[in-house]
Amino acid sequence: MPVHWRIHPKAPGTAPGAFAVAPGEGAEYRLELAPNLSMGTVGFARMIALSAGFLSLPLLAALGTPVLWGLLPFAGLALWGLWYALRRNSADRQTLREDLRLTRETIELVRTNPRAGAQHWQANPYWVRVRMREKGGPVENYLTLEGAGRVVELGAFLSPEERATLHDELTRALRHLR
């Protein structure tokens, strides 16, 4: 799951993954969200090779004819388009991230976008509400934070199951700090 929690300071004897901060001032939850990187370099190479193989099948029928030279640029352009789209998607997914910092005094969300500036949101955690619309939202299990007069979406790139789990974990973390 592309959700990573860091809790500081942890309560003594806390099991890994448990939401228990040590009592006192300075308790802090940090949440890092990033999209899944489903295709690595091996998958990329396989996809390009497979596509090149399938694109070459119609060209085999035109071998030895002048038609081949008419079809070849279009096959090359299609292969280059696939290569470019996969590389661009991979680069965008590596820069897209959401960082949430939660303390007793403030909750702060910073979303780093691939080709735009970072977006910031800050509120008092006492007044923040975590909402999840299971149906009727733009996506299934639409997760939002409401506070400071704004509604911000959280984890848009996560799967519905991951957003449901994140909703429970974030609600528990907010409850701990109140």
Describe this entry's structure for a reader.
The protein has about 180 residues and is α+β, with helices and mostly antiparallel strands. The chain folds into 2 domains: about 5-35 and about 100-175, PH-domain like, CATH 2.30.29; about 40-95. Helix content is about 40%, strand content about 25%. The protein is built from 3 helices and 8 strands; from the N terminus they run E-E-H-H-E-E-E-E-E-E-H. It has helices at about 40-60, 65-95, 160-175; strands at about 5-10, 30-35, 95-105, 105-110, 120-125, 130-135, 140-145, 150-155. The strands form 2 sheets. The protein has a 5-stranded antiparallel β-sheet with strand order 1-2-3-4-5. Strands 6-7-8 form a 3-stranded antiparallel β-sheet. Helix 1 packs antiparallel against helix 2. The two termini are about 25 Å apart. The model has no long low-confidence stretch (mean pLDDT about 90).
